[in-house]
Amino acid sequence: MTATFLQCPKTRLDLSTPHVMGILNVTPDSFSDGGKFFNPTDALKQVEQMVADGATIIDVGGESTRPGAQDVSLEDELNRVVPVIKAIKQHFDVLVSVDTSKAQVMEQSILAGADIINDVRALQNEGCVEVLAKYPKVPVCLMHMQGLPRTMQDNPQYQDVVTDIMAFFQQRIEVLNSAGISSSRIMLDPGFGFGKTLAQNYELLARLSEFEALGLPLLIGISRKSMIGNLLNREVNQRLAGSLAAAMLSVQQGAKIIRVHDVPQTVDVLKVLAAVQQ
Q1: 57 - beta bridge partners?
Q2: Angle at 210 between CA 220 and CA 215, to 5 degrees
Q3: Mapping DSSP to helix (H, G, I), strand (E, B) and coil, where does residue 85 land?
Q4: Contact at 8 Å (CB) between 266 and 249?
Q5: What domains does the chain contain, in order, with CATH numbers?
């Protein structure tokens, strides 16, 4: 039985209905909207719009994880995300997630008011598990990635894509539990596009419901990704229909949080789905 709520520092997030997480990239080079919200004023305007459109979580990222992305220094990432997190928490009643793999960025973000840690490296970098263990009310999303952003799409191999990812999650959950981080604080993201071929991505989408066996909430990020562009032969700004189809398929298979660029359209799709399911 998958958890029905997620305990955050100051609230409990009800997972009986799916949530839309709005993406806020405060980077110059993200694959879809790099540079658009690099300016803090533009970032806050975008947050205001996403909250008005129905996002219940804002995911702030200061380092692009697109294929081939270059590493960002600790100082640069801190300078990008910490002021924005503080400003969001000051102006809006919304949960803030920080998309980072650096222990120091995690800690400074939590101190700035971040509610959730979202890590594409599943707390495998030095010091990350220790930071999360210090803050017992902060949940974390563990994502699966084969390889590193720069090389992850160079011929990824699996015995069985779902079984292999589930084994990875089970190993990471054990590590976190041993460090005192309870499973009630953990979400899982199978990592669409992170070290997976086109065929592997769609097999993963087709078999998403199998992850319910782990009993932890699923966070899914497919919005505008190349798995949609390559299938449909669409540029990044033409992938809305494919993204919405993937969001609906994900929620139908048990996903609790959908991480997207296109908030109002995704909210509409999920309202229609909810009406049908009721």
Answers
A1: 21, 95
A2: 75
A3: helix
A4: no
A5: 5-277 (3.20.20.20)
Task: Bin 127: left if φ > 0, else alpha if -120 < ψ < 50, else beta.
Answer: left
Query: Cα–Cα distance between 265 and 247 in angstroms, integer?
Result: 10
- Cα 238 versus chain centre, distance: 21
Active-site residue, selected from the candidate residues 102, 172, 239, 259:
259
Distance, in Å, from the CA atom of 216 to the CA atom of 136, rounded to the nearest integer, reads 17
pTM beyond 0.70, yes or no: yes
Q: Is 259 a catalytic residue?
A: yes
Q: What is the pLDDT of residues 61-108, one digit of tens each?
A: 988 777 666 788 999 999 999 999 999 999 999 999 999 999 999 999
Instruction: Please choose, from the candidates 231, 167, 224, 160, the residue with its C-alpha nearest in 3D space to the C-alpha of residue 202.
Output: 231
Backbone angles phi, psi at 24, to 5 degrees: -125, 100
* Residue type for position 37: F
Contact (Cβ atoms closer than 8 angstroms) between residue 96 and residue 89: yes
From the list 80, 89, 225, 239, the catalytic residue is: 225
Statement: residue 36 has pLDDT above 90? no
Please state the rounded mean pLDDT for residues 208-224.
97
Convert the pLDDT of each residue in 180-202 to its tens digit: 999 999 999 999 999 999 999 99
225 is catalytic: yes
Q: Is the distance from CB of 109 to CB of 87 less than 8 angstroms? A: no
The β-bridge partners of 95 are 57
